[in-house]
Design brief:
Order of helices and strands: H
Radius of gyration: 27 Å
Mean pLDDT: 90
Number of strands: 0
Largest sheet: none
Number of helices: 1
Low-confidence stretches: none
Shape: rod-shaped
Distance between the termini: 84 Å
Helix content: over 70%
Strand content: under 5%
């Protein structure tokens, strides 16, 4: 009975550690997703401003030459 109790306690300890590690991973991923979402929003605003500044036309450097 004592051996069985030790095995159960060991299993619970491993499971607790695994849950803690997964919780840390999920928290880190949440922070990274939040950071990347803010970055994408910033890039989208910058691109919208760039398009508004150019009047919605394609910049000359990005246009195809007339012979294409």
């Amino acid at each position: 009975m004592d051996k069985r109790m030790n095995q159960l306690e060991e299993t619970v300890a491993h499971l607790t550690r695994t849950v803690d590690e997964l919780s840390e991973v999920a928290a880190r991923q949440d922070r990274e997703i939040t950071r990347l979402t803010a970055r994408v929003e910033s890039l989208m605003r910058a691109e919208a401003e760039r398009i508004a500044d150019t009047g919605g036309t394609i910049p000359l450097a990005d246009q195809r030459p007339p012979h294409w």
